Every structure is written in C-alpha cells, then in structure tokens.
C-alpha cells in the first residue's frame, strides 16, 4: 500500500511530537517527493535545526520561503535563522516584507526593533 504525501506528513508530525527528528526528516522528505509543499519544508527546517544540521536547515527554510514568500510565519522563521547565522541584511529585508504586508505582526516588529537598537 502506497502512502499519500499527507499521510507521510502526519507520520513526520507524530515523530516530531516524540522528538524523533531523524525519522520525522525521513517522512517529510518522502512526503515532498510525492507533493512538494512549503509547510513540509518548514517542518524539515525545524527538524534539521533540532539536530544541528545548519546547512540542511537553511536549504529547507529557504525552499519553504521560495514556495510561499507571503506566509508570515515562514518568512519570520527564515528571518530569525538568517539573523542567528550572520545574514543580518537578509533578515532585515525579510522582516520589512512581513511588516509591509502585515503591520500588526508583533513578533516581526519586535525583532526588527531589537536588531535596529543594537546598531
């Protein structure tokens, strides 16, 4: 019996809940092989971050953002990751994008203020 992308995604979510990130990564990757989705890349980003695989984490959050650049949560996660990894200019650009389309996104506004106050 072949599993659908959604079934594999939910299997990955179950593994994440159990903090079994390596198994979650496998399920999410299989899900994306069937049907690429920005949310699956976002979950892969979270799993790779948990296992300290910065290179794959970056690739996944970048893919998630590329697939859905108007999703505020994804864009915020991407900005946070960029900031933590020395890509401040890109983080600022991403945060500005969020606030431009959603001025009430408090987390983005707070992070942007925090960055600018450090300068």
State the main characteristics.
119 residues, 2 domains, 7 helices, Serine Threonine Protein Phosphatase 5, Tetratricopeptide repeat, mainly alpha
Quick synopsis:
This protein is mainly α.
- Number-wise, the strands total 0
The count of helical stretches stands at 7
**Strand portion, in percent?**
under 5%
Runs with pLDDT <50, length 5+? none
**Helix share bin:** over 70%
CA-based gyration radius: 15 Å
CATH topology of the largest domain: Serine Threonine Protein Phosphatase 5, Tetratricopeptide repeat
CATH class of the largest domain: Mainly Alpha
For CATH, the homologous superfamily of the largest domain is named as: Tetratricopeptide repeat domain
Counted up, domains total 2
Any idea what the CATH architecture of the largest domain is? Alpha Horseshoe
Q: What are the secondary-structure elements, in order, as H or E?
A: HHHHHHH
Global mean pLDDT: 95
Helix and strand topology:
Layout: H1 5-17, H2 21-34, H3 38-50, H4 54-67, H5 72-84, H6 88-101, H7 106-118
Helix pairs in contact: 1-2, 2-3, 3-4, 4-5, 5-6, 6-7
């Amino acid at each position: 019996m072949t599993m659908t992308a959604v079934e594999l995604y939910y299997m990955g979510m179950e593994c994440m809940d159990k903090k079994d990130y390596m198994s979650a990564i496998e399920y999410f990757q299989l899900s994306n092989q069937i049907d690429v989705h920005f949310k699956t890349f976002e979950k892969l980003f979270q799993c790779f971050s948990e296992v300290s695989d910065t290179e794959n984490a970056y690739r996944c959050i970048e893919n998630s953002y590329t697939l859905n650049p108007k999703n505020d949560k994804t864009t915020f996660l991407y900005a946070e990751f960029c900031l933590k990894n020395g890509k401040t200019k890109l983080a600022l650009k991403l945060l500005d994008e969020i606030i431009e389309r959603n001025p009430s996104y408090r987390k983005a506004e707070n992070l942007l203020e925090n960055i600018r106050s450090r300068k």
